[in-house]
Amino acid sequence: MSDQTQSNNTLIVSASPHIRDMDSIPTIMWVVVLSLIPAGIAGVFTFGYYCLNVIVLSCVTAVVTEIFILRLRKLPVLSVIKDGSAVVTGILLAYTLPPGVPWYIPVVGAFFAIAIAKHAFGGLGNNIWNPALAARAFLQVAYPAIINSDWRTLTQEGMHKVVHNIAQVDAGGNLLHAITRATPLTKEAGAEVYHLAQLFVGNIPGCIGETSVIALLLGGLYLIYKRYIKWYVPALYIATVFVMVLILPAQVATPWSNNPLYHIFAGGLFLGAFFMATDMVTSPLTKLGLIIFAVGCGVLTVLIRFYSGYPEGVCYSILLMNTATPLIDRFTKPRLYGTKGKKA
Amino acid sequence: MMTAVKSKLKTFIGGIHPADDGKILTSDKKEIAAPLPKTAYLFMSQHIGAPCKPVVKKGDVVKKGQLVGESQGFVSANVHASISGKVLDVAPWPHPVTGVKSPAVIIERGEDDLWAEGLNEAFDTDRISPEEIKQRIQTAGIVGLGGATFPTHVKLTPPKDKTVDTVVMNGAECEPYLTCDYRLMLDKPQEIIQGLKLVMKCIGCKKAHIGIEANKEDVYALFKDIVSNEPDIKVDLMEVKYPQGAEHQLIKALLNREFKPTQLPLEVGAIVINVGTAFAVYEAVKFKRPLIERLVTVTGNGVKNPQNFLVRLGTPIKQLLEDAEVAADVNKIIFGGPMMGIAQGNIDNAVTIKGTGGVLVLKDARQWRSHACIRCGRCIDGCPYGLNPSALSIVCEAREFNLAIENNVMECKECGCCSYICPAKRPIVHLIKFAKAEIAKQKVKT
User: Fold this and answer.
1) Are residues B253 and B152 part of one domain?
2) pLDDT of B159 above 70
3) Is A340 a domain residue?
4) What ipTM was reported for this prediction?
5) pTM of the model
6) Structural domain containing residue B92
7) Which residue from A144, A208, A325, B128 puts its CA 20 to 30 A from A183's CA?
8) Pick from B287, B315, B333: which residue ends a domain?
9) How far apart are CA B437 and CA B138, in angstroms?
10) Mutate to test the interface with B, among A5, A24, A30, A127 (most CBs of B within 10 A)
């Protein structure tokens, strides 16, 4: 026959299907990075350029740790680094940290996130807990003074570099006081109460990436539009917090403590609901499973905020539901087609 | 073009739709007859069931349509000479589906292209009996031309305890790139409907339901017009979604009935026939023409001149590729469509068989590096059979076959939605096929 079909020995033989969707892990991860940028800008704008150091340090440590561990595990390095998952973890961790933390906090945290929370469990896809949140929980236990009590204990250097935007807007003269609260959800008596619009824009004390609801919403809605996250996970999470605050009796004598809108706008709920509860690896597989997961996160968040020593409950609620994910998966297996109302 | 409102379209839950379904390459290509092959290779096994027994020998002179392979047992289908000429040999030849050498009758083309005696006469089919219809279908060697190649006369013989109330005709052609059913429906709508009615008569079934994907509105209008006086034959537009043309999804969309993946449509009182099969039935019953040719879409970015060829069975694939002006730098050739077709390592000996619906020729075909599952759940949303492909791919990869069985691996129809949609590019269907084969081996051993 003709020469044209002589090169048959170069034909690829592989199992069907022979076409694939365009989406890949790298595209998903880098789009998540993109969607996190507005919240980062809002953080830097609110708290100053030092935050950028924290974010960059966290990301660089995450990537360097990933390279180190991949070498150790004798796995391909370049393709995994390119998938962007370490960068996502780095950014998410930085966003959960107070703006003025000393340099070693993001470094230790990012190392823990990648080396322990991610790779000790088998790497991307096999980790039980969201690495960023696991690291945040680790830091909270290891450095409680820096993470959740009075921020006056932060290093002088860090403090000076945090621009006092909040104080200018809100302080009423007491500059230091205004930025010493870790979160507007603090239970101390005499704490400031913020206007809802202020909470929405993010001009409030808090962690680097959690304060600006509008910036987080922008990124989150983009992820929903791209179908990388399921809309009902953040929606149900936030709605559950709303309802729980509405029905439970107020716990502290502050004007906001039983105001559901205040509770959903303050603290880390939007960051957690859009970017952490939606982490594919650590959340259930099926729709029903995700619904249970999201509602569980909401219930636990309010229970922790109301009845524990912590002012904030987003981090631990998601970690607890991560823990429950294998169990949820077991009880929410998809139904075999054609077995409605019958045993499979 | 899209007049129907999307929400009104019938469909099923799950499935996928590729952004580029490649149909544009050949959807306006009218069928053209491929040149007759110099040599035709007719396999004795072109269907599900027992292979045929050759009834000609080396040196025999055969006429087009003459029986060359006689079916063995009930679940089997006759094979006929697709060209007139001389039997060169009766010998094993590499089979395009299994790859294993399998008996074939090899015919060298003679001078003429005349039908064997008694074939190709028009019969009056108005008063034909159901038994006679089935007899002619069986004699003509008709099998399901949608790709499954199950002998049609067997399908038309339901067990006594099952009743069929509806014949479902598949005009979905959901497999990307393929357009041969579409062209057939455009060019031969009357014949297809006649064939459908013969099938209905054969099994004594009053109702029929035709499903067309919404990207073929012209066909829908044609069919709608033809059956406008037939209240018992319904035509519906269905959502453009793969695998809309698979039996389970078709019956769910049109009749809203569900049955398990391993069960047959008979379970819910239906049988499904493809439009190509209906046309073959018409030809067989009306003219006693055996199944010796079919439409084959030859397409893909690896051919300069994609076409819908009317091809005699046994025609070498190489010849079709040359007629379609195959490029020099082709790196993948697939028999069938991109979702369920089989990639070929070598096409030197490959020929057209009854189940060949398309040849997809690709250059720059990609290979994907697979990652660990990130549990995104898209495969579960995409699986039309309610399986958990994520878990299946993991347990099959780990060779945990008992866990695979527990996760319903045997219910998988290998439609490919999970692999298609997986962002980690996991070869899910490949792993499932591997596990099924291993499980079958273990069964044989025990």
Assistant:
1) yes
2) yes
3) no
4) 0.88
5) 0.89
6) 33-119+290-362
7) A325
8) B287
9) 31
10) A5
